[in-house]
Structure formats: C-alpha cells, structure tokens
Amino acid sequence: MSIFNQQAKNAEGQAPRRRNVGCLGGCLLFVAIYLITSAVIGLVMSSMMDTSTVELKENTVYRLQLKGTLIEQAQEENPFADLMNMMPYSAYASETTVGLDDILSNIRLAKNDDRIRGIWLDGAELSMAPASAKAIRDALLDFKSSGKWVIASAKNYGTTNYYVASVADRVCLDPTGQVNWNGLTAQKMYFTRLMEKIGVEMQILKVGTFKSAVEPYFRTSMSEADRLQTEQYLNGIWNEYKAAVSASRHLSEQQLDALADRYMGLQSAQEQLKAGLVDTILYTQDMDSLLRVYTGTEKYKLLSTKKMAQLDRPKSKSKDKVAVLYLAGEITDESGDGIVGKDVVKTIAKIRKDENVKALVLRVNSPGGSADASEQIWHAIQNVKADGIPVVVSMGDYAASGGYYISCGADYIYAEPTTLTGSIGIFGVIPNAAALRDKIGLDIDGVTTNKHSDLESNMIYKGMNAEEQAMMQAMIERGYDLFTGRCAEGRHVRQDYIKSIGEGRVWLGTQGVKIGIVDELGNIDDAINKAVALAGLSSYKLVYYPDKVDPFEEFLKMLDNTTEEERLILKIRQMATRPRIMALMPEVEIK
Q1: What is the pTM of this model?
Q2: Which positions are catalytic?
Q3: Which residues are within 8 A (CB) of 552 and not within 5 positions of it... i.e. 6 or more apart?
Q4: What is the pLDDT of residues 202-216, one digit of tens each?
Q5: Which domains does the chain have, with CATH numbers?
Q6: Which residues of 499-536 are buried (b: 16+ CB within 10 A; e: fewer)?
C-alpha cells in the first residue's frame, strides 16, 4: 500500500495536499525522462545526418593537442559524450582519449602533403608512457626531415611531455608556467601493515627472485632485487630522455642533470628561458601571432587530430592483407576492459579464416595478467604460424610477463628502447582472512568427503597448512616451467638460459635486444614492413582488429544504476576473483 493511500482524507473528502507533491514528482520525472530521451534521439540523428567531409586547404597547420589519455587505438567518436558529461555522477563522464595510431598516421600525412605547412604541439597534458612518447617524438623528427617546422606551446610541461616537445623548432612557455624537468621517480605502495591491521594475511606463491608484483603484500619496502631492476630501467628511461633533449636543445647531458637537480618545476619562466629549456615566453592565447609568422599568412587553417584522421588516405586495391591486431591492457580470461582471452582467440580464428590475410602484426601493450589466458592466446598465435602466416610483434609501452608470454612465439619481435618487457615469472596471491574472521566473530563449519575437499575455502578462511602450500607452490612452478618453455621454443634457445634471465626480472627494450628476448629496436611501422617482407608481398592493404567499440553500447553501459560505492566493491571483487596463477609485472608509477 502506498503512503498516499494511508493518509486520511480531509474534511471535504479530498486527498491531502501531499498527493499533489507526489503527482508533481511524477511529472518532473516524466519531463526529465522525456528531455533525456529527446537529447539522445537528437544526438543520434545529428550523428547520422553529419555527412560533412573534411577538406584540406592550403596553409594548413596540424594542431596536435597533447591533452587527455593516450591509448593504442583510437575509438569511434562517441556522440553521447556531452550528454554523459552532464550526468549527475562523475563516473558517467566520458574520458578524453587520443589514439596513438591516429597521431602517427596524421604526422605521416602531414609530412607528405604540401598543403600542410607545419605542426603546432598545443599543450603538454597528455598522459603517456615513455615508449609511446618516443614513437610520437620519432615521427615528429621524421616530419621535420621534410623541411617543415614544428612549434610547441604550453602553460606547463611535464617531463615526458617536454621530452616530446623538445623536438620543436621553437618551444614556447606561458609567462606563469614551468618546465617540470626534475628527473624521474618510480614509487610503489605497500599494503602489508594495512593488511595486518584489518586481519588479512596474503599467502604468496611465486617463482622468480625479481617477481616483485607480490612484494606490496608481504613487504613494507623494495627488496634489493626489485630496487636493482627498477633503478636500471628508470635510469635507462632517463638516459633516453637526456640524450634526446640534449640533441634537440643543444644542452649537454651534464647540464640537463644539473638543471634537474635544481628542480626546474619550481623555477620561473625566465629561468627556464635562461637555462635554454624554452625559446620564447608567450601566452598560449597569443599563439595566433606566432602562427601567422610561421605560415606567412593571416588566413592559415588549423586541423585537429580528430579532423586530420577524417582525411582520405591512399587506399590499396590489393587483395593481399596484413592484419594488425591490437592487444592492449591487462590479460583476463572471460571479461574486462583489456585483453580478454576468449575474445582474442575468437578474433584470431576470424583472421585465420580470411584467406587473403598473408601476415599478422601483433601490437602488444600489456603488463600481463592471467597465465591461462596468456597460454590460450599463445596457442592461437601458433595456429596462425602453422597456417604459414608470418607473425611479427610490435611492443608498446609494456610487453611484460603475460604480455611477453603472448609475444614470445612470434617470428620476429620489435620493441622501443624504453619498452618494459621480460618479467618472465609466475605468482599467486591468496588472502588468508582467518584473523579478520575472528575479529568480526564469523564461524565456519561443514563436512567433506575427502582430505582436501574444502581446500579452496580453507585457503581463505583458515589459511594453508604446509602440505597445501607445497601443492600450490608446485602448481606455480609448473606454470613457470611452461612459461619458460614457451619462451625457449619461441626464441630458439635453451630453457635453462630463459630461466637465468627470467626470474621475473623486468628489462628495457634495449636490454631485451642484448639478452635475446627482443630481435630489434623499432616501431609498429618497422613491424609491418618486416611482416610484409616475411610474407613476400609486393602490394598489400592493412586491416585492423579488434573492431572499435560501438559508442551506443558504451552509452548504454553508462546508464546502469551502479553507484560509486558499488563500482568500488565490484573492483575489489574482481581483484579477489583473479585467476590463481598470474603472469603480471609489478605495478609502478613513474613520474
């Protein structure tokens, strides 16, 4: 019975005024639904009716805005982005992403079209890892080889964004801005004391001295092994940054170290100019005057990354195809936002069915994840090779642990100098909540038919005994043996050698070449060219997988009733239900 039916009628036999409030609320809800529905329909119709094409005109400048989050593969424009940003919950907001594939393709087009005069790097707030930053920087250097110019402007430059912007012919800084040339730091968060306080012990099973992904759950600081590998790859990235900036800015690496020691992020714009990190102090809003000088006209045109990507590219009429499969994110078994094992296997099967596909390029950007899903993907790739189709890997920011697992069986492997790879190791983490159970007064009892029938429950609520831990450790070691065996087979070396350079150790791409887990330093274009050569193709066309996310499906996901708290609980549940055996590199934040 509704609350309104419980109310007494007034002396005139009419419903109380509160009923009117309820009616008003219902009307408002109806109006709100009507407005949202109308907005959705309007956005869809607008998207469907927008058939305008981008026209490339003389004196065009490619405005490459370094803002948002860089992803491997650009997604379809979401016509509901503005509506989602207006939703009452911040979780509905549409994240601004930029595709590395679009940026690199646009820079190539800009180099070869005389109507494009130069590139303006606008801003320095693009969230990207070192390997992707190098890919963009190298593309800009190649662009400049055509004799065209690049200028950069920003309010503030982060270290990685400055590394990219330093390639510019002129680097501009806002009068109130800074260049955060401060060096790099890699930090990890440790949860051991927190777990002790709440009564949860993490039972660790692993193989590999350097397999430090589990250290945050039983240590309070870095192990010596983890400190060693982290120092090596962090210094390797910093050395790459210094060498590149030194060549572009005509500052010695010693000078650049001395500037970092001064913490340039706290110095004035005039000090940045004096130090040689920038060329011009200029408000970003006044860039128009500088662009008029560089283009030699007041009627120049600006094209964004989005608009540039809509320009026609030369299309091959060849029937032969080179498939490019993007594998980005954490590797999972059945679901997730990254590399979902079952979906990848289906996609590879689809590629195999296309008799016109003559080569496969895997663009891998993954820190790893489920060991079983990695094995399934590895097997699917071997099936491609068994069909006589060459497979070449292009490593992005990461191709470590499970990311290396799915790469190791390729015919040829490319990595960027600052790619983080290797981390050949296996681990399992099982929480023991016995102390927490005692704290909250939770008792568990039951019956079993055999000695270890209740093993999975006992592991979490009572903790493993020595025999159970030995069985679990044996399973982990079998996984490691399988992993290293796959690597040895793929790299044509002895398994003992893989185990000697494995142990969960993370390597830079440059080090990977030296120890033989990578064939050559290079980018995705190098990988495509190698695949073409291995397939013996004289002409070809590129086809890309997986299909891009449907914006309408993405919008429908946003319309669920999940609260922020429920989303957090879901995330914790996903962590708790991870596969028993993981091939995942340690989480580290580089700043």
Answers
A1: 0.83
A2: 211, 401
A3: 44, 80
A4: 888 888 787 888 888
A5: 60-182+263-309 (3.90.226.10), 321-446+458-558+565-590 (3.90.226.10)
A6: bebbbbbbbbbbbbbebebbbebbbbbebbebbbebbe
